[in-house]
Amino acid sequence: MSLRSTRPGRAKLRVAAAASALGLVATMAACGSTGEDEPAQTGSIDCAPYTKFGDLKGKSVSFYTGIVQPEDAAYIASFKPFEECTGVTIKYEGDKSFETQILVRARAGNAPDIGIVPQPGLLQQLVATGAVKEAPAEVVANVDKFWSKDWKAYGTVNGKFYSAPMSANVKSLVWYSPQEFKQNNYKIPTTLDELYALSNTIAGKNKKPWCAGISSGEATGWPVTDWVEDMLLRLSGPEEYDKWVKHDIPFNSAGPRAAFDEAGKYLKEPKFVNGGYGDVKSIASTTFQDAGQAILAGNCSMYRMASFYAANWPAGTNVSEDGQVFAFFLPGKSAGDKPVLGGGEFVTAFADRPEVKAFQTYMSSDTWANVKSKLGGTVVSANKGLKIEDCKCSPVDKLSLQLLQDPKTVFRFDGSDLMPGAVGANSFWKQATSWITGQSTQATVDNIEASWPK
């Protein structure tokens, strides 16, 4: 499935500025202890796991990704401990066209040593070229130890494990104004029923509870697909969600129809939307970047959008539990449910030289996760070895990490990213946009079902 740079969240994670990140890394120890008088801000690392790969001094590993300046700084900095341990040089190449170029390069026999693949569907396409190498035993051991079976499955194609997860984003969030909630004694909803009741309460005060925007250039419509996926996961459960994504059940079956209708209770209700922008149809012409800003203006109270939206608030905005804006978990049917929709990126190897395997081992470890987390910026990972208490994270990232590490969490990858391109990046987006502007649920799901490749 073709990826799209207009849809953020996979290769758009926000990290610290270059000077800050590199400054921190300068304080890191190479290997072993740092000495009592010289504490390392990001901690030293144990070089032992990499000795088994032999003498690697003078070797290099090419690293290709869609993560570009300034977001690349903390990633480059996080490689330094490995480079100092092994003598390997990591040659970083960021490219906004990664999602199309990686396929071109793989098919032409010009693939990098490592590519950061931002979607399981793309991984499947790459594996089909024959260029991708299976993960070495050391990576398999790390993933089995530090990641859930769900995450390992996303790096597996036709029963073979290829790619370890790297980073993640959480989409099941609702942005809101803590100050407004405190002033009105609104409680954070813990069930879908409570969320709907809160929406009615706010609407009863002659205010639109929700703002929404789905305009995103050629990718217009994707925010609606996230709403639908979240609702399907909540109403029908993870097993039914998996069947839907794989087309083991029709797109126009009862579960998906109910998910559209549940999303429509919010998005297509005139008294609920679109705070600050217009009526229901204005959702289609409002960009997803602009939509949430109506919370700061006091024109709406809530905006369902992923963790990566934190980067869209104006500089100086207090984003915290007691600040101008923050986020809460989009609740499930019951207070104990923790269905989390999200995305992520995967470390994929196109070479199996010792230095490449050693680097894969580092990237799949809790060591790398904790080194990266101490470099600041956006730091979200489902690696269970990441120590949240030591993370130099934003409050929203900490919320996301807590959700990902919660043993009750049931994580599922963005459904449209897993579907064939003709559906996930085409008919689903387009028909969801038509749905917003007035098309019926039945016509919408029927049209998407008809587009599924035979």
From TrEMBL:
InterPro entries according to UniProt: Bact_solute-bd_prot1
Keywords assigned by UniProt, alphabetized: Signal, Transport
Residues in the signal sequence: 1-29
Similarity comment: family membership: Belongs to the bacterial solute-binding protein 1 family.
Name of the protein described by the UniProt record: Alpha-glucoside ABC transporter substrate-binding protein
Organism: Virgisporangium aurantiacum
